[in-house]
Amino acid sequence: MINAMNQLYPQALNQIEQMKQGNPIHTPEGNTQEFTSILRDSLNTLEGKQADSAHAVQSLIDGSADDLHSVMIKTTEAQLSLEVAVQLRNRALEAYNEIKNMQF
Predict the structure, then answer these.
(1) Higher pLDDT pick, 17 / 8
(2) What is the DSSP secondary structure assignment for residue 26, as one 8-state letter?
(3) CA gap 90, 95 in Å, rounded
(4) Which of 21, 54, 95, 96 is the most buried (most CB within 10 A)?
């Protein structure tokens, strides 16, 4: 899990830097993804993590899951994903407001 996260963050930072420079984001296949598809996939991942967390907590309450460690990991993943999504939303709103306030 940690190895996957350590690989994901540099890729995400690289994609953000490419977007800042105006370069399209290339997938390993060489295709260009649109921003909307990236955003849609990210939100679907966030929704999946939230659902997994809720299911893990419910199974712990029911008594069907006896591994508190995995429940806590799923809950923390969901929390971190939500915090990242909120920060991205805040940054997007800040950028929109800056563009809106520009003098032409």
Answers:
(1) 17
(2) B
(3) 9
(4) 54
Judge contact between 49 and 77, C-beta under 8 A.
Answer: yes
Q: What residue numbers bound the domain in which 57 lies?
A: 35-104
What's the pLDDT tens digit per position in 12-30? 666 677 777 776 665 555 4
Q: Cα 43 to chain center, whole Å? A: 7
In the chain, the amino acid numbered 94 is: E
pLDDT of residue 66: 82
Domain assignment of residue 30, yes or no = no
Q: In this predicted model, what pLDDT tens digit does every residue of 74-90 receive, in sequence order?
A: 999 999 999 999 998 99
C-alpha distances out from residue 90 to 52, 70, 71, 84, Å: 25, 30, 29, 10
Q: Contact at 8 Å (CB) between 98 and 91?
A: no
- Torsion angle of alpha carbons 30, 31, 36, 39, nearest 10°? -30
